[in-house]
Amino acid sequence: MFHGDRSRKDTLIDYGFRLPCARDNRPLTPDEFFERVGKVVFVSATPGDWELSVSENVVEQIIRPTGLVDPVVEIRPIQGQIDDLIGEIKERSQKDERVLVTTLTKRMAEDLTDYLSELGIKVKWLHSDIKAIERVELLRDLRQGVFDVLVGVNLLREGLDLPEVSLVAIMEADKEGFLRAERSLIQTIGRAARNAEGKVILYADKMTDSIVKAKGETERRRALQMAHNQEHGIVPRTIVKHSSNILLDTLRGKSEEIELEQANVKRKRKEKGGKVNRPEPIPEAVLELSQRDLLLAIKRIEKEMKDAARELDFERAADLRDQLKVLHERAQQLRKPGNN
Questions:
Q1: Distance, CA of 223 to CA of 230 (rounded, Å)
Q2: Which structural domain range is residue 287 located in?
Q3: What is the C-alpha to C-alpha distance for residues 296 and 157, in angstroms, rounded to an integer?
Q4: Which of 30, 36, 114, 174 is the most exposed place for a label (fewest CB within 10 A)?
């Protein structure tokens, strides 16, 4: 953070947009930060080399109370990978299970999605242009079986909890780089660890260091969990998790309310022949805002709503969305002729 902030401010200062004293208002350097915080606990499924090097004690939490083991990892050749993948997808679809496919590029993800769709496979692709709320809806549809296969690039690496996914396919797994580094592979493999039948297929023609380490770590964790299950008589069961979503349910509920309200307005207009005002007035505090303050409030709340959705705090995101609706109504009033 420090170096990124410094680089940005140096550019502004060099071209005269900021005074040199702007450098004084900055984030702490890593050394300054750790001098102030004292004891620190790092929490990560895939800790980095630096965190491991500065940690006095490393505690692993590998055992899952559900008994679920890490997925089986298979290495298969790249030649014929698409035909092999199609066979695996059909097998999983027959069992009402889902599949994640991760590619290296957006172009490959899009082409693969089009090809699978032409074959009659229910498939969607997830990309960085999709907004946070739409992303949540897409993942919900995958869980509910609206489609069976989700194709993506880096977006499949972190933060997905999809118990219905029993297969993760990693295309071109031997192409070394950030997306095929050891930690990225471990995180991607973990997407299949919520299902008792979880399996991961790495399509590769050579065993890179990253593949060897990721496969070895997965097998180590798998062995520990299986030993624990055998010792305590635990039978692994797929996580049963409700697929409803508070934010999406709220959005759909609001849509139905709006349609009902519009129908009532049309009916009253037909009966009375006049315009019907909205039943809920705009709050006094909003009416007192100037046009400039109103626009600033809209921008701030839009950012907070997106942040809340990104953090999966859907109740707060829904509340913020309702606030935005009121602010936009007031903004429309101010834009009408005769209003200041």
A1: 11
A2: 246-335
A3: 35
A4: 36
Torsion of CA 2, 5, 7, 8, to 10 degrees: 180
Coil, strand or helix at 172: coil
> What is the helix (H) or strand (E) element at residue 340, kind and residue range?
none
- DSSP secondary structure string for all residues of 96-123: T-EEEEE-SSHHHHHHHHHHHHHTT--E
Q: Taking all residues of the chain, what is their mean pLDDT, rounded to a whole number? A: 83
**Rounded-to-integer distance, Cα 231 and Cα 54, Å:** 35
Range from 25-39, 93-107, 254-268 carrying the lowest mean pLDDT: 254-268
- The answer to the question of residue 45 being in a domain is no
Contact call for residues 164 and 171 (beta carbons, < 8 A):
no
Q: Does residue 284 have a pLDDT over 60? A: yes
Question: Which amino acid, 77?
Answer: P
Least confident of 81-90, 155-164, 295-304: 155-164
Token match 């797929």: residue?
Answer: 238
Say whether both 98 and 145 belong to one domain.
Answer: yes
- Looking at residue 266, its pLDDT comes to 63
Cβ 214 vs Cβ 74: under 8 Å = no
Tell me whether residue 54 is in a domain: no
Looking at the fold, whether 108 and 226 belong to one and the same domain comes out as: yes
Distance CA 118, CA 138 (A): 20
Q: How confident is the model at residue 100 (pLDDT cuts 50, 70, 90)?
A: very high
| Amino acid (one-letter) located at 72 | V
Same-domain pairing of 328 and 284: yes
How far apart CA 293 and CA 290 sit, in angstroms, is 5
Of 90-104, 115-129, 172-186, 291-305, the poorest mean pLDDT is in 291-305
Residue 173 within any structural domain of the chain:
yes
Exposure string (b/e) for 125-148, b if CB count within 10 Å is 16 or more?
Answer: bbeeebebbebbbbbbbbbeeebb
Same domain? 199 vs 311: no
pTM greater than 0.90 (yes/no): no
Residues 105, 198 within the same domain: yes
